[in-house]
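Box 3.1 A note on notation
Throughout this textbook, protein chains are presented in two layers. The first layer is the amino acid sequence; the second is a token string describing backbone geometry. Keep the layers aligned when reading.
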Amino acid sequence: MGVTDYQYILIGGSTKCGTTSIFSYLNDHPSVCGSRIKESRFFWNNKYTLPSTGVSHINGINEFDDLFDCKKPTTHRVEATPDYLYDVESAKLIHQHLPKTLMVFILREPISRLQSWYKFAKQLNLFDANYTFGQYVDDQLKSDNSSKLQHMRALEQGRYSTYLESFTSIFGAENILVLHYKELSENPLSLMQKYVKGQT
């Protein structure tokens, strides 16, 4: 089978919302093969700086096939790059090259997600020791949302509706699945049975 012959499930967002868990659960399904790189960023269009994984649509769609090393016969493939949500050009590239794609987005209450980003950035020593959560919020409120630093876009990226509208207009509502982090964290089995079982 060629790269375009599979059904794809692309977890396209959002960051700090449990995408790794959903990716792992789907990869365990007997009909699904997960990519060997969880965040391949294959269709990422460099809207802001993310570390390169060494694979890209720039080298042709067939290179996407190299991300999957399936040991079992499968009909579906899953890949997760949470930042896809924030770039309409990535959405267009995915739709152009992989028309049989279900886009999955996991959303989290925005303040909780913002706090998670703050803690994560502190762990990475991206702020000095005295930098407070209040300062983190204020600095983003004062910005023009053009920062190339991913952790300084967390407030703006919590406004999910604008981004989802772009994906819905490109893929159609029937090819968009929105899940909620609260349900994922409280009862992951229930969430998977409720929403995902029928997609594979």
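The chain has nine helices and five strands. The chain has a mean pLDDT of 90.
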